[in-house]
Amino acid sequence: MPVRLQKELEKIKKQILSLGALVEERVHAIDKIIQNIDIFDANQIIKRDYEIDDMEIEVEEECLKILALHQPVAADLRFLVSTIKINNDLERIADESVNIAQRVIIIAKRKDDIEFKYDYKEMVQKVVNMLRTSLDSLVNLDADAAYKVCLLDDEVDEIHRDAYDRIKAAMREHPDHIGYLLNMFQISRHLERIGDHSTNIAEEVVYMIEGEIVRHSKEIGG
Q1: Which of 31, 98, 115, 205 could cross-link 146 (Cys pair, CB 3.0–4.6 Å)?
Q2: Rounded distance between C-alpha atoms, residue 118 and residue 42, angstroms
Q3: Which domains are assigned to the chain?
């Protein structure tokens, strides 16, 4: 591999890992925001979303530049293709964090009108673990860790279904609070999507390492 290409690939790896760390920080903050209905921190996540958007664009531009100038093949090509996809998934995870923050702000205005509240603590912890493990698998090029993330997605889906059932029952009991309850359910949907994007990252790590597309594979719960 030419020395210049190697340096540029290393630069991109550092950029995607920095983006991953920033996104993980945002998802960590979601736990506190949901549990405390914290409007201040929710607004901070919304206001700072541009930071992740800018980093995502920068990573994509660097990847496309290398593809055009160096025309890499084999493992280097897989790395760049996977990084472009991981980059997009990280940006979408940040967007889902913003969506949750927006739901919390709406809920905060109505929380005194109804006692019902779904406890999302376990679900948040699981998606945080999925994201962290997927990023660790990228750092260490660890396919086993990536496969574990794919299996964890089923657990998040199960909590999502439980939230749906409980909130639907609450809607029948409190028909005057449909708006509040819909926003409460949307939190579940956004967390579930964070789990999905974390799974996508893990699948791209497997492709990066093994050259095998495992997306939708039933053997790993896809």
Answers
A1: 205
A2: 18
A3: 3-220 (1.20.58.220)
